[in-house]
Each structure stands twice: as C-alpha cells, then as structure tokens.
Design brief:
The protein has a six-stranded parallel sheet, with helices on both faces. The protein is built from eight helices and six strands, in the order E-E-H-H-E-H-H-H-E-H-H-E-E-H. Helix 1 packs across helix 2 and helix 3 packs antiparallel against helix 5.
C-alpha cells in the first residue's frame, strides 16, 4: 500500500535540481549509509545508490555547506551491524543477534572497522553541527513527537536543524516531508509525486 503523506515541507526533486553555493544541507543517515558502506546494496534500491551520492558530491563541488550530526553515528552503526548480521544469517548460518554480537569476535572486529571507515568518510565530507541532549532538548523533541510523524533519531536531527538555523535536508525518508518549515531534497518518487499533487513541489 502506498504511504499517504501529508506534505508540509517544500520538496525538491534532486534528479532535476542543481545545488547552489549558498545551500546549507544536513544529510540524513540513510544517505550516508549508501555513500560510505560497501554492502549498502544489500538493502538499497538502485536510485538510492546513484542519485544521493551524485547530488551530495555536486553540492560539495559547488561549495555548498554539507553538515552532519553525531546522532547519525548511532543510526549508521546500527544499520551496518544489522546488515552484516543479516548477511551472516543468510549465507553462513542463522544466528541470534546477541549471539552474533558477543560470540563471534572476528565478525565484531570487522563490523567495528566498517563503522569506523564509514564514519571517517562522513567526517571528511561534512561539517558537524552540535546538539546537547539536555532537559530542554528532550522536552522539545518529545513535544515534536506529538505533532511530527518521525522516528526518534529524526527528532534530534530536526532539533539540531532548528538550533542551527538549517532548513535543508537531503533524505530519502518521506517522514521529513511531513514537517513544516523545512526543505526536503529527495529522489523518493512517492514523496515527489505527493508533493506535486499537494502543491508543495519546489522548483529552484
């Protein structure tokens, strides 16, 4: 069943947009996953592996500011471990995740290396924006959770964006398109088509 997005953001189709030197983007974790992790093709769709890295690299080449948040490390490491676990379970032997994490030191060492390599690439490409997880931040994130249909990781990415005045996010995640006051740069056709139908597709 297609997802019925109520589009609140301005949506930009990255397959027809050209980044500008004045752009300030935060890049969502899913894009970093496809750009920096060799086995991302195990779960990605071909357009995700081509369109997002191309757009980010063009943005960097144009002199746009590309940002990252430390919260992406948590999500990135989770996704890499999950993918490696699924590969092992499918091609070597079925195993419990906790068993995989604790009983196979060679696998664990390899996963740590993959995460370190991926995060090293992220750090080399993007500038950090900092968010302190304190009481006001968690209260604000919890309040947002009541109105914005995003997951827990994205709550803090949105808080970081708000605190640093960043409104542009490069993501395949349609949840961001339901958040008002931001611009979502995406190649997700469902999001783009929904935005077009709802008058929220932005041509620059």
């Amino acid at each position: 069943m297609a997802i019925n997005y109520t589009i609140q953001a301005d949506v930009v189709d990255i397959t027809s947009d050209m980044p500008k030197s004045s752009d300030v983007f935060i890049v969502d974790t899913n894009v970093w996953f496809w750009m920096t992790y060799p086995n991302a093709d195990q779960s990605a769709i071909s357009y995700q592996l081509s369109n997002y890295p191309k757009y980010v690299n063009v943005a960097l080449g144009k002199g746009a500011k590309v940002c990252r948040t430390g919260f992406s490390l948590a999500e990135l490491s989770h996704r890499i471990e999950k993918t490696e676990f699924e590969i092992y379970s499918a091609y070597v032997k079925p195993i419990d995740l906790k068993e995989y994490r604790h009983n196979l030191p060679t696998e664990r060492t390899r996963i740590v290396s993959e995460v370190q390599a991926a995060w090293g690439q992220v750090k080399s490409l993007a500038e950090p924006i900092v968010l302190t997880i304190d009481e006001p931040t968690t209260d604000s994130a919890l309040a947002r959770f009541q109105t914005d249909k995003v997951d827990g990781y994205d709550l803090f990415i949105l808080e970081a964006m708000k605190n640093h005045g960043v409104v542009q996010v490069i993501t395949d995640d349609g949840d961001f398109a339901t958040v008002s006051g931001i611009q979502v740069f995406t190649a997700n056709r469902n999001v783009i088509n929904s935005a077009r139908a709802q008058g929220r597709l932005l041509a620059r």
